[in-house]
Amino acid sequence: CHEMVVRGQLPACEDDLLSLAALRLQCLLGDFSALSPYPPLEQLFPAGVVEARALLAPVDPPGCPSFPGGLLAGTLWGHKRRQEQDQRLRARLREEGAVVMSAILERWKALAGYSRRDSMAAYLTIARQWSGFGCTLYEVDFYI
């Protein structure tokens, strides 16, 4: 079930995904401790959701005009501009990842006292809300 969640195969809202990640931490590590080494975000939360959040924010800084598509393409200026956009996008990904991890840690703190069994039961209760839970999903190419 957890693998389905992390791969983004469980269509859950972001609020549920945060709760599932916190429950996973509670199950693995017990009660929150600032000294607890926790796993990387991509082992707790779907990376696609973090990427989508980062892409919602504008990559170009406000007030910077965009040039027509082919005007500066292939020039040194165009290359430099693409590098700067890539750097800003990577920075946004790091920022969004930090925001998501912070939200997960806050929820984990609220789970103090949950046993491993309680955490797993609560996790599965949230996951079972999806009508396709327990089904095997296949990617199918459709040709018409």
TrEMBL record:
InterPro entries attached to this UniProt entry: Actin_motor_Myosin, FERM/acyl-CoA-bd_prot_sf, FERM_2, FERM_central, FERM_domain
SUPFAM superfamilies named among the record's database cross-references: Second domain of FERM
CDD domains: FERM_B-lobe
Pfam families referenced in this protein's UniProt entry, alphabetically: FERM_M
PROSITE patterns, alphabetized: FERM_3
Superkingdom of the source species: Eukaryota
Domain FERM, chain residue ranges per copy: 1-144
Protein name in the entry: FERM domain-containing protein
Species this protein is from: Cirrhinus mrigala
